[in-house]
Amino acid sequence: xxxxxxxxxxxxxxxxxxxxxxxxxxxxxxxxxxxxxxxxxxxxxxxxxxxxxxxxxxxxxxxxxxxxxxxxxxxxxxxxx
Length: 81
What we know:
Elements: E1 5-8, H1 10-18, H2 21-33, E2 45-47, E3 50-58, E4 61-68, E5 73-80
Parallel strand pairs: 1-5
Antiparallel strand pairs: 2-3, 3-4, 4-5
Protein backbone atom coordinates (compact mmCIF):
# COMPACT_ATOMS: atom_id res chain seq x y z
CA UNK A 1 0.00 0.00 0.00
CA UNK A 2 1.36 3.39 -0.99
CA UNK A 3 1.59 6.08 1.71
CA UNK A 4 -0.78 9.02 1.74
CA UNK A 5 0.65 12.50 1.28
CA UNK A 6 -0.02 14.78 4.26
CA UNK A 7 -0.85 18.43 3.64
CA UNK A 8 -2.02 21.23 5.91
CA UNK A 9 -4.66 23.81 5.04
CA UNK A 10 -5.05 27.33 6.44
CA UNK A 11 -5.48 27.18 10.21
CA UNK A 12 -3.90 23.72 10.46
CA UNK A 13 -0.74 25.03 8.78
CA UNK A 14 -0.64 28.00 11.18
CA UNK A 15 -1.03 25.64 14.16
CA UNK A 16 1.71 23.37 12.83
CA UNK A 17 4.10 26.30 12.31
CA UNK A 18 3.37 27.58 15.84
CA UNK A 19 4.70 24.33 17.36
CA UNK A 20 8.24 24.27 18.68
CA UNK A 21 10.61 22.51 16.26
CA UNK A 22 10.85 19.46 18.53
CA UNK A 23 7.08 19.13 18.90
CA UNK A 24 6.54 19.72 15.16
CA UNK A 25 9.10 17.05 14.21
CA UNK A 26 7.44 14.52 16.52
CA UNK A 27 3.97 15.45 15.28
CA UNK A 28 4.94 15.16 11.61
CA UNK A 29 6.62 11.79 12.22
CA UNK A 30 3.50 10.54 14.03
CA UNK A 31 1.24 11.81 11.23
CA UNK A 32 3.32 9.93 8.65
CA UNK A 33 3.28 6.72 10.71
CA UNK A 34 -0.45 6.83 11.38
CA UNK A 35 -2.58 8.79 8.92
CA UNK A 36 0.04 8.55 6.20
CA UNK A 37 -0.32 4.78 6.29
CA UNK A 38 -3.99 4.33 7.15
CA UNK A 39 -6.09 7.51 7.35
CA UNK A 40 -9.22 5.52 8.25
CA UNK A 41 -7.59 3.74 11.18
CA UNK A 42 -5.70 4.60 14.37
CA UNK A 43 -8.83 5.34 16.35
CA UNK A 44 -10.08 8.00 13.96
CA UNK A 45 -13.81 8.59 13.69
CA UNK A 46 -15.93 10.03 10.92
CA UNK A 47 -17.59 13.40 11.42
CA UNK A 48 -21.27 13.90 10.58
CA UNK A 49 -21.44 10.50 8.90
CA UNK A 50 -18.94 11.47 6.17
CA UNK A 51 -16.41 8.63 5.86
CA UNK A 52 -13.75 11.00 4.45
CA UNK A 53 -14.19 13.81 7.01
CA UNK A 54 -12.48 12.57 10.18
CA UNK A 55 -10.98 13.40 13.54
CA UNK A 56 -8.26 11.75 15.61
CA UNK A 57 -5.62 12.47 18.23
CA UNK A 58 -2.03 12.19 16.97
CA UNK A 59 0.98 12.95 19.19
CA UNK A 60 -1.22 14.70 21.77
CA UNK A 61 -2.79 16.90 19.08
CA UNK A 62 -6.45 16.81 18.04
CA UNK A 63 -6.60 16.71 14.23
CA UNK A 64 -9.57 17.22 11.92
CA UNK A 65 -8.87 16.14 8.36
CA UNK A 66 -10.24 15.09 4.98
CA UNK A 67 -9.15 11.98 3.12
CA UNK A 68 -8.87 12.04 -0.67
CA UNK A 69 -8.45 8.34 -1.34
CA UNK A 70 -8.37 8.73 -5.12
CA UNK A 71 -5.22 10.88 -4.93
CA UNK A 72 -3.79 9.38 -1.69
CA UNK A 73 -3.86 12.68 0.21
CA UNK A 74 -4.78 13.59 3.78
CA UNK A 75 -5.54 17.29 4.30
CA UNK A 76 -5.48 18.47 7.91
CA UNK A 77 -7.87 21.39 8.34
CA UNK A 78 -7.63 21.87 12.11
CA UNK A 79 -4.98 21.04 14.70
CA UNK A 80 -5.38 21.72 18.41
CA UNK A 81 -2.26 21.19 20.50
